[in-house]
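Sample entry as discussed:
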Amino acid sequence: LRVLRHGRAILGIPIILATIFVGVSLFLPRNYTASGAFAPQSAANSLARFSGVAAQLGLSLPTQQANESADFYADLLRSRHILSQLVRSQYRIGDGGDAESGTLIELYRVRGGDSARREERAVRQLRGALNVTVTSKTGVVNFQVTSLDPFLSEAIANRAIEILNQFNLERRQSQAGAERRFIEGRLADAQAELRVTENRLQTWLQENRDYRDSPRLSFEYQRLQNALVLREGVVTMLAQAYEQASIDEVRDTPVLTVVDEPTIPSRPDSRRLAAKGVLCLLLGGACALLFVAIGDAMATSSSERPEVAAEIRRLGKDLFSFRKRPQD
């Protein structure tokens, strides 16, 4: 019942807090969010493309495709390697005479410290403005970039896709180059083995011209012929794989499928003032009730046990006099 006597404080404090919070929020700059989505493309290695031919020849080749999951690209987009490139990139925002250009270090107004520390602070700020999610069913990576300028949000989002494409392209070209060099060496060995097999069969035929009349010689001929066919198949397969790896090494086509291309946001993000105002009312009301309850409890204790109140006042005076005492 005593708490109800302080109804004005209980109602007034949360209303004042909510009014101040909403009023301040109205004068804060608005945020703009640009969103995009992409899906990675899986790629098989050069030898795996010819696994069917190899199976017919009785050979076993790796058929597993390169593991390029959406989670990998989500982590890559949040990595320092990509964020640092985004921070160092040049952006142009605004239009006409109000246009402004520079890196994110300059556009974020990062000051103080050396260049490495300024870049680190810009990377942290960009990481906080970047939200990345993955749709597991479809393998699509969704991301959002938030800033105080709609043109900057769109520019960062599109630049992120460009950097990811370039990173993936260079990685695939490097992998294709390593495969080409490996296949090139294996192809040279296979061609040498083929020549040895051909020479062996040629020598055998020169020594056994009438092998068809002998079952034993016919069987031996068939065995040598099968070995020759096998070597020829291996050389053909490796030659095709070599050509494919050579093509992949210089391929410059994009390897990310852009599902949702980032565009300039047409409106600022919602402030959610209603939800935040209700939250301020609830928290302010709870704090007001707590303070009133504590005050009433102290008042009750003082009236029922005056010696306790006197001791509290004495301690307060001693503390005040101690703070006022001049130091030697």
Q: What stands out?
A: The chain is about 65% helix and 10% strand. The longest strand covers residues 32-40. The chain has two domains: 1-29+271-302, 31-260. The two ends are 52 Å apart (CA to CA).
